[in-house]
Amino acid sequence: MKILVTGGAGFLGSCLVDRLLAAGEEVCVVDNLTTGNVENIKHNLSNSNLRFTNDSVLNEPLMEKLIKECDAIYHLAAAVGVKHIVDDPLTSIKTNVKGTDIILDLAHRYWKKTLIASTSEIYGKSNQIPFDEHKTERVLGSTKIDRWAYSTSKAIDEHLAFAYSKKGLPVVIVRYFNSYGPRIDEKGYGTVVARFIKQALKGKPITVHGDGGQTRCFTYVDDTVRGTILACTTKGAEGDVYNIGSNQETSIYQLAELIKELTGSSSEIAPTSYESYYGKGFEDTIRRVPSILNAKKKLKFEAKVSLQEGLKKTIKWCKEDW
Ligand code: UDP
Q: CA nearest 16: which of 27, 30, 1, 2?
């Protein structure tokens, strides 16, 4: 198969590309290297099954050419992470909404199987735990709070995907839950795991926002990639949305303690205000836990890697490659 991966030089995208190439697929990557990094795919550049284009998914003529030629699309290119949105809401909204609009319109025109990468941020600050793809009501704050633009832009992407699905397009959506692993971005944009590991390795204070009682379900990248491929390749999975995540709920304070322990760091765990990082008027999600039933039932997917095991591998990589 010829597979187009948008955002294929990113942390997650590049790991997906590794897996697709290993399975013998031909892969075409489009990435404008905003948060992606050519280092992530460097080891594959001599592989004749990989083609890399440094450009944006907003370049419609280019996307038309690439989509015409491919058999399936994994659309991962997006402005990712809450911090990005808070820092530059305009570019983030445009990338997420226009980019997906272009991809889905072309996928529909040329009739190509498409996977849309979405996010657990979709659920906002809902307290209906665990988050169920079909039943949980999304709860978002005021539009004056930039954070919610991320959830909203991704929700538009999902609505678009379902609208095309109604027109018969084979399309599937995955919602990621705090993915981490080797190749996490050193700058730590959008991932607390990268920031804490960096702080711990440098002996700097580990900056826990608030009281650190907020929880996430950190999902090791190998699990995320496996779930993504299953969603795109499982017959009958089209037209639906799947939580792709571990259900091991961990508080941010526990994460800080675990990273401190696994790195053997002497860093102090330092409670820090949200405001110092995100600016004024930030709202956080207090608990984020996926229901894993839909993915289990329809994709036969379940995350396998424990946080302890995944962090060990990630820390090893960070020590060697950062
Ligand atoms: N966080 C933290 N310290 C940091 C960076 C993030 O305590 O230096 C917290 C953040 O406020 C949030 C959680 O870690 O409660 C997860 O943040 P991240 O940006 O990784 O992703 P999110 O789940 O919010 O999309």
A: 27
Residue 211 tokens read as 């009281």
Which amino acid appears at position 298 of this protein?
A: K
- Residues 121-135 have a mean pLDDT of 97
* List of domains in the chain: 2-181+218-246+289-303 (3.40.50.720)
Q: Give the predicted TM-score (pTM) of the model.
A: 0.97
Mutate to test the pocket of ligand 1, among 175, 252, 267, 314 (most ligand atoms within 8 A of CB): 252
Please report, in angstroms and rounded to a whole number, the separation of the first and last CA atoms in the chain: 34
For Cα atoms 234, 235, 241, give the angle at the middle one, nearest 5 degrees: 65
- Phi, then psi, of 300 in degrees rounded to 5: 55, 40
**Per-residue model confidence (pLDDT) at position 188:** 60
Choice from 192, 255, 267, 283 to test ligand 1 binding pocket (greatest atom count within 8 A of CB) = 192
Q: Compute the distance between CA of residue 149 and CA of residue 142 in angstroms, rounded to an integer.
A: 10
Q: Which atom of ligand 1 is nearest to the CA of 150?
A: 25
Q: Please give the sequence-ordered ranges of beta strands (E in DSSP) within 182-308, or none if there are none.
A: 206-209, 215-216, 219-220, 241-244, 250-251, 269-272
Going by alpha carbons, the residue nearest to atom 16 of ligand 1 is 192
